[in-house]
Structure formats: C-alpha cells, structure tokens
C-alpha cells in the first residue's frame, strides 16, 4: 500500500513532468512562430526593401483597404523600435485598353510624399511599358507631394495663362511634319502639334530610326544609347516643346544661326530641325492639311517612286523612310535645298504661287478682335476663353488638391496617365485613412 510520502512524491513528479512538458511545448511553439515570423519578414524584405528600407514590415488591417478601388494591400514599414517610417501601398490599375499595371508605391509616415516605387511583374494582361520608362516616371514623382497631375495635359499655370498671342489663321486639329532624310545617326525627326481653340495645346518632337531595332531617339537617350551634351535629349525635347506651348509662336524661340537658343533653360542642343518642322506644322494648320492628309500624301509619293524598299509605320502613323530621291519635292527651277513641303506637293505651280502669296498676307495681317479674343485677368495675364478644354480634375481629384506636376513621357500620354493614376490611387487611400482635410 502506497504511503502518504510516496503519494506526495508521485504527485510532485507528475507536476514537474507537466511543467516541463508545457515548457517544451511552449518553446516549440515559440520557435515555430519565430521561424514563421522570420520567414515572413524575409519575404517582406525581398518584396519591399527597394521601395522603403525598414527593419520590419507589417500588413495594415483596415476596412478601407478592401473598399478603396485599386488598392490590394497596404503595409507599414517599421524601424527597429516598431515606429512607422512609411507605408507601402499595393496598387493595381488598368490603362484605357484594359492592360494592368501592378505596383508598390511607397510614401512617408504621413502619407503625403512618394519615397519609393516598384513594379510587380505578375499581371495576367501586363501593360506594355518598358522598365526604363517606369524609372523615368518614378524619378519624376520621387519626393514629390501627392496627388500628382501631368504638365503635358496643360495643367501648368504657364500654359493655362499665357500673355502670348498665337499665329493668325490656325485651324483646329492635329498637324504633323517629318524630315525627308535621315540624320548622321539614322534618325528621322518629326514634330506633331495639336491646335484647339486657335491655340497650340500640345507639341511632340522626337526621331525614329530607320533601323527598326533602334527605336525612338527619346528612348535611346533615356537608356544612354543616344548621348548629347547637357541634359539628356528627352528632357531637352520636352523643354523646347513646352516652351512653344507657352510662347505660341516658333519665331519666339529665338534660334540663333548655329541652331541653338539661349532663352530656354536646359536646352543646349541644335533645334533647327524642330523649328523647321514646327513651322511646317503651323503652315499645314493654316492650310487645313492635317496629319491624316499628310501621311496619306507622303505614302502616295513613296509608292509613286516605284521603290521596292519597304517603309515602316508605327502606332503614331509616321513614316520611317530615308528619301534618297527628292525629285517630287523639287520646286520648278529650284535647287536641292529649295524644296517643296509635303503640302506644297498637293498644289500645282500656279496654285503654289497663290498659296505663298496668301501665306505672306496671313503672316503680315493685323489680327482682328475675333482672332485674339483673349481676356486679361487682374494680374495682366491673358486667359483664352477656349481653355475650357483643360480638365478641372485628375483621377476624380479636384485640381485644387493637386500638389505636384510632372512632365510624364511626352511621347506617350496613356502610359503617363496610367502611372499617375497609380500614384493618385495611393493618395486617395491615405487621404481617407488619415482623415486629411483638403
């Protein structure tokens, strides 16, 4: 029969075994949970460290995440003490054609400023945008306050309010001109100008290479394949295009005899090709000879030469063709440097003479009140009544809320708009989450 002392020893041993077993189980659970936590943090760091570098990351659990369109997840970036140093918003948006851009947008601790960006390449129908283009766009918004809008859409004050009067007799529409020969590096320059309300609203200057593997001059300048002195070519091109929108007249660009200009900050390259082609676009606008008519005529001229060399067109519609035989463009009794434009080839010699006379009259004519119906504000700046085309919102956000403007990719508005929508989607979440008063 078990004595009382033996019973006490047995109970003590059982208790000790239960305590040790519980400790072992707890230690195992702790180690397992810690390993799971470490694995999760390793995964988070792999995903987020190049957006916001932090000691740890934690997913934000909030009803707004599920209710905000375009927001998949939101994560906190934490320092060693567990203090929030920023947020990472997981955003998916679609472009006009339904292709998706999936991105991580990093903002600072108060959600007001972009401090990181990364594309997540897992879309089922990925948006066709190159890494170099995303690097360009993300660099434009880095350390900028949100929300963001594009200068290229005419939101900037210098474009909305202009003291400059546009040339006389412009017809609304999209007008285009391109060089008829390639430059020393195989590029054919082109300029496209959009006229609305009798004013220049949009300008594009780029070059496409006759080698289809080379692509545009703009993209080549961003990758370092095309290098010029000063700012990269894409930036200089944007600056000169923006200046023309503001100045409204090619002659106001003040090109010198060597093809440069000193009045536009950041532009050191030769702008003579731009000036010539922009002037041709203006002449085409006066004549009502729009881009479609230009491309159609240029195509017919190529075909009339009976050449077997295929020319290349892209989504913008321009023609990549090195014109070695310019005979269709030579004026009667003219030299190789005295050539007709594409529009002028549509006219007979008699009509051409009359056209040149009419053009001269238009240039020297005094504008009528109807042609210059600009309304000055109290600061003496001029506001065009037709400025109603300028949107009063971006991504559903009133323009009064916009804190930053970026140029975007001047040659591709859709890509620029989709990227801006990504950033602004993050803004709309944090605006609600942090109860901003705007």
Throw out a few tags for this protein.
Sufe protein. Chain: A, elongated, 19% strand, five-stranded antiparallel β-sheet, 438 residues, 10 helices, 16 strands, 2 domains, alpha+beta
- Unreliable stretches, pLDDT < 50, 5 or more residues? 152-161, 363-390
Q: Main beta sheet: strand number and arrangement?
A: 5 strands, antiparallel
Secondary structure category:
alpha+beta
> Would you state the CATH class of the largest domain?
Alpha Beta
Strand content: 15-25%
- Provide the helix percentage: 25-40%
Distance between the termini: 85 Å
**What would you report as the Rg, rounded to the nearest angstrom?**
31 Å
- What's the domain count? 2
The residue-averaged pLDDT reads 80
Q: Element order, helices and strands?
A: HEHEEEEHEHEEEHHHHEEHEEEEEH
Please provide a brief summary of the model.
The chain is α+β, with helices and mostly antiparallel strands. It has ten helices and 16 strands. The radius of gyration is 31 Å and the shape is elongated.
Q: How does the SSE layout of this entry go?
A:
Blueprint lengths: L3 H45 L7 E4 L3 H5 L3 E8 L5 E11 L5 E9 L5 E6 L11 H11 L6 E3 L6 H4 L12 E6 L8 E10 L2 E11 L7 H7 L9 H15 L24 H16 L3 H14 L7 E2 L5 E2 L28 H16 L10 E2 L5 E2 L9 E2 L2 E2 L5 E3 L6 H21 L5
Parallel strand pairs: 6-16
Antiparallel strand pairs: 1-2, 2-3, 3-4, 4-5, 7-8, 8-9, 10-11, 12-13, 14-15
